[in-house]
Batch of 4 targets.
Target 1
Amino acid sequence: MLKRPSYIIVGLIVLLTLMVLNLPSHTKARLKLGIGNLFLPLLGLAGSSQQLAGAALDGVVPPRRELLRQNEALRRENQGLRFKAMEGDTLERENARLRQLLGWQTRQPHKVKLASVVLRDPSNWWRSLQIDLGNRDGMSVNLPVLSPQGALVGRISSVSLTRSQVVLLGDPSCHVAAEVEDPSGDNGVIGASGPLDSGFVELGRLSGNADLKPGQLVRTSGLGGIFPKDLLIGQVVDTQPIEYGFGTVARVKLAANLSALEEVWVLVQQ
Amino acid sequence: MNLLKTILLLGAAFLAVFWEAAFSGLRRALGGQIDLLAPLMVYAGLCAGLPTIALLAAWSGLCLDSLSATPLGISVVPLFLVGLAVYGSRELVLRDQAFAQALLGLAAGAAVPVLTLILLLTTGHRPLLGWGTLWQVAITGVAGALLTPPCFILFDGLHNWLAHARAAETSFRPDREIRRGRG
């Protein structure tokens, strides 16, 4: 069936694969980065074509009455948000003053950076994406990533000069220490989900007597040191006892729509 | 080795990987991303030499892994194995028949993700697995079946358009020329 040169080529391919797989991790990461950078011109092309499409759509102007209505609605929303921001400022000052009185450590404020999602993992068995911020924008591994609405999306897993890879919630390598908003404050760990249901994740490592109800909010607990406390993850859908009732696992509906992310916030510690 | 065919295949593989990573409309609609590399491997297996198959598998596998969380180099082996299997049985396949091409595309589209998953699990990685994986394998298989025949039309057309036209054979044969004249 196969001739001698065929065996030589098969051997070469196996050798190449073994060599690449056994490279030191930093060399492998650099090689991966180098090959990934070959796609940069295509990314630029895709971006400019989107801009062109946007510019073409700009020509289609909605009627004046509709614009006036939208303008009025936005003006009202803006006023409401200004008032809320003012309230927030007052509460923040009050909080800082009380913390000072109690001798508590003041909370480190977070800075956020907006990033565009440029690529998604082409494989079906990982849940990751790439954003257009990299080393030169101050990105580093393990920075939390949020949706435009402020819900947790995942964390940065690797960084290059101009891009970063984000592992999303539900990926086997993205574990988050979480806490349920119930009177007992049950703690667990958000783990992997099924390959099809990107909107749901499992909250495991809950105690057997955890009393969770559908609709309860799930937030980060701050344990583990990667994700700050109180970031919204989602809400409990249902629970199921495991290990003969010694443990409980809950299904959590994510607050962020991971399959429709166009832009994300990266939380940078100041 | 036909250099033009090889260059066309490598270029197409590069664009296919970019498309899979940049456009996720089908992924959202179907629940899984389709694989465009399997039809290319079937075409290479039936119409190109073994060096081209090896080069295509190595190039497209490395490109795919560079944009994915899959460890670099893992995707090379399944693609090459599929190309090699098609190459080994090319004498038995009616390669001009769309039905045969579609069947090979179906098998290749399903085999590539299964082999990749087996490799990932053997090397100690933990990919997302579940009953939904069967659906995703079915999707890539059906996509392979649907895309392989157009792949043949496209590449054969491109090759005919870009390559030199084959010289037409004339009926003139010098040994049969009847020499007329005096003497």
Target 2
Amino acid sequence: MDMPLLCAGFAALSVTFYVLLDGFDLGVGALLLLQPHEKSRDHMVDSITPTWDGNETWLIMTGVTLLAAFPIAYGILMPALYIPIIVMLLSLGLRGVSFEFRSQMKFYRRRWDVIFAVGSIVAACMQGLILGALLQGVSVQGITFSGSVLDCIRPFPALCAFCVLAGYVVLGGCWLQFKATAQLHGFSGRTLRIALPLFMVSFFAVGGMSLFVQPGILAAWQDHPVLLGTLSCIVLLAAFILFGSIGKRPDVRPLIAGLVMIAAGIGGLAILVFPTIVPFRISIWDASSSRLSQIFLLTGAIVVTPVVLGYSFFAYWVFRGKTPEKGWDGYE
Amino acid sequence: MNLNPATLARVQFAFTVSFHIIFPTMSIGLAMFLAVIEGLWLKTRDGLYLEIYRFWQSIFAMGFGVGVVTGIVLSFEFGLGFAKFAQLAGPAIGPMIALEVLTSFFLEAGFLGIMLFGMNRVGPKLHFFATCMVALGTMLSASWILSANSWMQTPDGVAVHGGRLVVINWWHVVNNPSWLVRLPHMLSAAYLTASFLVAGVGAWYLLQGKHLAFAKKSVALGTAFATVLIAGQVFIGDILYGTMLKHQPSKMQAAEGFWEKESASPAPYYWVILPDQKQQRNRFALGVPYLGSIWLTHSLHGRVEGLKNTPAEQQPIMGMVFYGFRIMYSIAILMFAVATASLWLRWKRRLFTTKWFLRCLVTMTPSGIVATLGGWYLAETGRQPWVIFGMLRTIDAVSPVPAPTLLATLIAFVCIYAFFMTAFLIFVARVIRRGPESASIHADASGSLKNALRPQVLDRANANAAVGR
Amino acid sequence: MLKNLSLTFAKILGFLVPSLVGVTFFFAIIGVFGLGIAVGGLLVAVIGAVVLVRRVPAEGDAR
């Protein structure tokens, strides 16, 4: 059994869960800044209240999987992405604390809202920066990172940062379409009509620019033209369906289209990068830790992941339907 | 202190991990305390126990949250500051840390929600089971982390092939020589921390003359647990001392403040020293005669081994190791004294009215935290200059990140963590000011997966869904 | 005056005796007298504490 392959699969799954589950609540957080009405802002936060922080589980799972299964990659990527990772961790932490305090100190609520929003935006941008830096390729000498910590602050990663932020805003808008009522419903529709084209443009800009920035990507396109082409079409198709279903029934259609769109994008990224784990530099087999370690990790993962997924599903199911305008506590 | 990358990386990790350890220590202790309290509530049906449960539950929840946030940072920081260590040790400690993460998620996903928010929604037996599972979960998480750290102290079960670590025997990796002695020591430390937190708050209320029933029960329970625990803890500490003497002699040599290969006989027990690492001597030393031989060699005239037994380039910094140890040990002695005093006052039926003792308890409220920090400083600085003892030096493990970047992020960490701590302390102060009668039946924590089970929230959700979509 | 003296004496004794006993226990527990006595001291301390706490209810329990 190819342990490195299985572990890489688990890591990919982890990242996918994270992006799909945390993406929309980062998006909703970002959108808080665009929403002038207090009651609507409360409504927005209420829509993500029940489920937002369980999603960060998958981010940690990805990091720890790297440490346990691909420590060589972990030891190269952490210093390479030092600045965006730390900024992201701190902004996620601030998000968490501001969320707690938002519900404790009602009179400072607006300030906490801003902190929550800024934290969400910064975290999203950092994730995009990380993606861009990975695609751009980190400088490696042997198994040591040999570049500068400022390598990730360049045009291509910056474009990726914008793209990811736009993507999360799209997901956030879709989530609000699904969960919100009245004024907020209209707001999310208007936002989507602007955010989705912005995302599509930046997505294709990133795709195009990547061919020049990273020769490995050009090679990947040449190796898997059909697969990548199909995925790109799925992204486009999903975007069109999304656009067409804004403001119409059923409310869940934009969200499903949005999730499919992003998932297809992630799938494409995985194909571009495979079989390297330090993208275009080091393969998963060269970066692997010992076999016993990977077996140990996967065993634990197989046991616990279904439970975590099951409970998450339960939580989403409990809070199915529209978010009540008066909030979950009934005393807004 | 020069600001080179190695020093900055160390300072940054030391800061984040010291900050972090405060919260899991409280969480492990309070979780066990809550389980005991709920058990007492179910057995006696005395409403006072329920009040105590509710009061400490919200503090537990908030502390747990801060612990999670700061813990997330740590799981990335191994690589951020010490990439070469992560690359080498990943095969050994990676799976253990992964298991700790998985255990926490398991417990958080499954039982924490029920424990914090399910009081009226689920049957009392299920709720108690949930609380017990949370207590167990925190213990399990701690044991995984402690196994990983113990492996760094006393590595086993691996071989080096081509510069990479290969795990030969998993059981030896996990059950390395120091794990099973350090684990009960850390767990006891957590339980002692909780005992003194509880007793201290109770003593505070007694001195203020408020919430008397709650206060008295708190002081009684806190001191009772502390008494039983401190006896065991001192004993475990002594056993651990012997274990570390065998496996990490340099640490214990530094810990006692002796430089010469063989100390004078009889050896004093030093309490204050001004060590000079360069000159390999103490510029000043204050100690109790004979006590060194008695405590350290269990004889009246035994000689103690000094740090010169270790080659200079493998020596830890004596000052840090010594004072980490002394702080922990002094507080242990204080705890023992307080425990003995509490027994005596209990016998004399003056436990709740002896003002000097109550003031003592209030001062000792954070004693568990301080002692735990001291102990961890002993453990970690004593292992230096190794990050994996005998295998990898800390300075060889540092990431290729420039000093200005490290300094900038260190400053960012300090500022933001200060914010977290302030938020936490404000929250706790509020809970204490409001008193136990105002403690809500469910934890005051915020939006989260755990929040999904808050009764008013659940009711609304069900009503909402019933209206139909 | 004699009564005061004996009262003070009683107080001092009440302070000294537990201190000495405590110190002895401490030495026993940290194994200074040998492993056997250490384990024994630990058992005495823990069992004694448990018994004492259970048998002697702290006063004025307003319940």
Target 3
Amino acid sequence: MNPVVNVTRKEPMSSKVTNVVLAGLGGQGVLKGTDILAVAALRAGFDVKKSEIKGMSQRGGSVTGDVRFGAEVFSPMVPAGEADFLVVLEPTQVTPNQHLLRPGGVIINPEAVEADLLPNKRSLNVALLGALSAHLPIPEDVWLAALREGFAETFFADNQQAFLIGRRAQRAATTA
Amino acid sequence: MNDQNKQLLSGDEAIALGALHAGVSLGAGYPGTPSTEILEAFAEYGGQAQWSPNEKVALEVAIGAAFGGARALCTMKHVGLNVASDALFTAAYTGVSGALVVVSADDPGMASSQNEQDNRRYAVAAGLPMLEPSDSQEAYDFTLAAMELSERWKIPVLLRVTTRVCHSYTVVQPRPAAGPVRQGSFERDIKTRVMIPAYARPAHRRLRQKLAEMEVWNETSSFNKVVKGGKLLGIITSGISFMHVREAAPDASVLKLGFTHPLPMKKIEAFVKSVDRCIVIEEGDPFLVEAIRAAGLRVEGKAEMYRFGELDVPRVRRILNYDLTPETPKPPGKPPQLCDACQYRIVFESLRKRDCIVAGDIGCYTLGVLQPFEAIDSCVCMGASLGVGLGMRHVLPPDQAKRVVSVIGDSTFVHSGITGLVEMVYNPPATGHVLIILDNSTTAMTGHQEHPGTGRKLNHEPTNKFVLEDLARALGLKRVFVIEPRFGSQEFDELLDDCLKRNELSVIIARRPCILIAKQLKAYEKRDEPRCECDQKGANVVQSN
């Protein structure tokens, strides 16, 4: 399995489009994850596009969602080999999606967070978003507002906690 | 611009919001990926939306609303327009009094469809104006504009979108709503709306006249834009392809066509002449390139290999570079499958064990074709399981014919299985036939929409319920069984064996609510339970004793 790799990338991201792909299996919350990310990027002042394929994938099959943000975004789909970040909710989904990553791109997989620390196992998608957030030019308060927008009151607290766990773990890993 | 109003909407949601802001009185359709969310969003925003039994009925309802002077929206996936096309072609002749916008959501690449037909062909075949948005902002703007065009020219307008436009979320800046929903009002206009040959002949001429006028109008319309770039390369494109083109060739000049039938050929000619190399980049069929070449203009098209599947930025780069080398296939992901506790598993296991010849249909249960069952032998279109199964029964030798079974879901049965059942009663094969209706009380594959058999409307409120077994019995069928398939029980196997061995017509309704929404269904049932006789009306009176 791939560890969290190559976190040295520190180029300014405001001038170019940032490409993120979330991947997992139907029911894992891939699309919820891309929703939150896209709203956070929008509220942070970027142009945003998000693309997903629904339908047959709802029955437990592979699901991916693309989010692209920057000054101006054209195609809603992340071109193969151009993803800056690949966030994978299920280890088996690394192989089918690795080709999307650009050379030097970052994979964030479930090992980025300690599953036992999560208030709810189903918050893995949001915890990995937290890990992703450590790499992105979106302020924490904007992320938390996007979470509040994306979840009903009863689920918000758990998801906020999961997000912060992922965010802190990744920050610790990148500064170590 | 007020950034506070900016919203991140899917193309489907943007169409719904556009319809709401255009004062649409009624939205009708049938669920189908990638169009389903349009009417769901329209209802959520406060519009009046309904699922009809199928797309043809939905379009007829929408035509009626437009005859009544209202603005109507009709939504469906690309193959749905095949079902609705009978109404569509003649509605082009009659025209409308209010407004009618028909959304065709095409699925290039077949993310969730049985074919990748290009419905831009319908605009030409039926003689309808067509708009093609490229993102959610345009989906919103074009929906509003399509309503205005429809009203101005008194003609249905085809709003053609694709999976990536429907299911991509992009930023939308909505306008203020146009105003309240208009009340319908009937004005008699027999010669326009009654298509007997004597009235249809002039109606056809009127249609061609409207198209000729619209073509002139479209030459200067704001739907078609030139993005000024270099002179070396010019690209003509439409829909989502425009976005891929802008990214793949940022220096090229681009003619972006938003109003793609009738085409503004003078504008296209001027563009072609303004650049050294001109290439048409479009997803699917060579629709634009053929029309432009037929007008005598020299343009390049894409190589045939790019006709298949969706376009994306890398593929557009390949087209521009004349790259004909084989493309790397995408690594296989995990295919979808029937849920572990799904009732269909029991049925398909039973069919597989008996080596049945299964005429299948469209829905979750089409997944019965995959391992471990591989128990579907055909899947053509909505409702085809009945006709195809009967046709096989008619011609196969008896030992094979007796193994033929038609399998269809509840929503699909209501959509277009009913006439197949009438066919079964009317032209029974010598060996009889076995129809299995897999009734999971929802339209599961498209995301659990209601249908007439659930007894609930689009918004999940109760309505009259269509009872499948009552219909089968009313058609004169004697052998109609309702059974709940259960794991570990032989009951279903025994019933199937009994039906297969007889030379009679049998209908087995395998009924068990979809496990994914079982909880929700229970909640609806509890909500709709009659509390006492006094608050019940009409046919649903339940005796208190």
Target 4
Amino acid sequence: MADNDKKPGASPALVHSEEVLERFTKASDRVTMGRKTYGLSDRAFMFFFLLPSLFILLFLVGYPFITLIRSGFYNFSVLRAATPAKFIGVGNFTFILTDPFTWERFIFTGKFVILNVLVQFLLGVGIAYLLQKNFKGRSVVLTLILMPMMLCPIVVGLFWKYMFNTEWGIVNYILSIFGIGKVEWLARENISVYSVIIVDTWMWTPFMILLALAAFTAIPKYLYEAAEIDRASSWFKFRHITLPLSAPVLIIAVLFRMIDSIKAFDLIYTLTGGGPGSATQTLSFDLYKRAFQYFYTGEASAYGVILLLVIMSLSLIFIRYLNRLAAQNVRR
Amino acid sequence: MSTVRLENLKKYYGTVKAIDGVNLNVESRSFVVLLGPSGCGKTTTLRCIAGLEVPTDGKIYFDDRDVTGLSPSERNVGMVFQFYALYPHMSVLENITFPLRACRVPPKTIEEKVKEVVQIFQLKDLLKYKASILPPGDQQRVALARAVVRDPGVLLLDEPLSALDEKFREKMRSELGKLQKRLGITTIYVTHDQREAMALGDVIVVMRDGLILQVGSPQELYEHPNSIFVGNFLGTPGMNFVECRYEKGSLVLKGTSYRLKLERQDLIAHLVPYEGREVIMGIRPEYVHVDGKLKDGGLSLEVVAIEPAGRYRLIDFLIGEKVFRVRTDWELSLVPGRRVGLQMREDRLCIFDKESGRAVVS
């Protein structure tokens, strides 16, 4: 209380002591700059510091987002910017959701996402489990294994496109050594789906490995020692110690891969171009075509909103589960 | 219950010798305490017995069965780790049943066993809680329950009380002692706390630098330490050590003119080779009598400091440069600076070799 010229204890009159009391209570939540008290609370002060970044965020995220939702309700194309956008209510949404082609894409995307994430999860956790133990050249193996993840998806798609070539691709060449005939990796509808999964798995399993390995190494060694004393088998240890204790990280990894798979575009674009026909078009591929090939801007906006809702609700399920895991560990 | 035998056990980490040849016999149902300062190899020894470390050399026998090469799960040991190592994501019940479930014990047997240990350790109200949120005292009980639930042949305890606070530690200590007698499991207990060791052990094994210095009952070690280290390590405060010269049946205390005439024939007999040489005399603080009257030719010293310790006081004197502590009651009024007479009980005297630190007579 540098600015307090009257000593609170010495003030004789009751009026004075009240004034002093008020001063004491208010001063605690004000910014005292050493000499004078301004009428600015800590909270307001913090708000002013946050304001610039908040503004940028609003401009970069808030504005486009609102525009997206808005144009979802209009019949509008950026190609015909001169034609005024026509408000059609939920017309775009009903059109998309009643279109059997959209549902085909939904089913394909679902199948692709589930298979893709499942394979990557099993491979990732399995390989991470093997890589836990220290062996000679472990760091070299680890670096090599992580390489695919560092490549550009477009490049990966192109490489594999050549490798999968039916006539002169290396994959079929290797298969021919074992007497297996030519496989049309990218040209057959029922095979191309798996080709895409193979490539995505090749590229993104390292991500799973990395996170699983991090989760595994965070588990204290003494728990395994205790389990060893308790006569637990390797599987029992894995099932009852490794998995539950790394679950939060693994769930996040699966969530990441899931969202990424739903959004999968670049790799598919260069690998199959969505073909044959529309066999390997994911939802986001479909969205891309509507937005930037046919330029149905209003329709694509509605499509984007639907996709966003799907991804958000999926994430919500995972986050709920994560929270429950966390709560379990604190609940008494 | 198993017996445990260690034969010339060695464990080297590179050039560091954690254990350097340990021989030990642990009898069935006995409570053996491995005692020593940190880094003496006691925990490593315990981990070798558990099978968590592979010894560099030597053999470990359980009931004359060589278990040296066996994994922990093949040895049937129970262990409580220093920080308990409970499975944090499991409830107390799941923690206790873990060793049973891991061995596919039928549910009916599990139920019976759980009932039994829950009763012993009074865990009934804790069963559904997560192990990680329990206070250390409860965690310790759970860890003990988990260790004994499947009737191990040997129970290994690695400083199980060190995470508890002082008051609680004393309580758990006495409970642990009673429990071991009741269950009758062969127990090997590691600690650096000599009071714990004295209170709990049937047999105390004092270790230092990867070697066993002395094995014996608490009383044996206390009254007859075989080395300066053991005498100093056991007891609060430890033994007093005074440099002396042995001359014709007398000890001349260095730094004083006092000459202690020895009466005990066994002492004199053992000291014959030390005629004219320096030895270390050891005596515990409670075996020195403080007398207000000064005697001619007796030892008299000036009080340096007084430290109250409940029913007793610890009085610091100086002999030469070294502190000489005496435990005495409150009868005599003492102030720093006062000169008093001191009489040592000859029957409690220990003599050590100055070079090796080994006991000549104790």
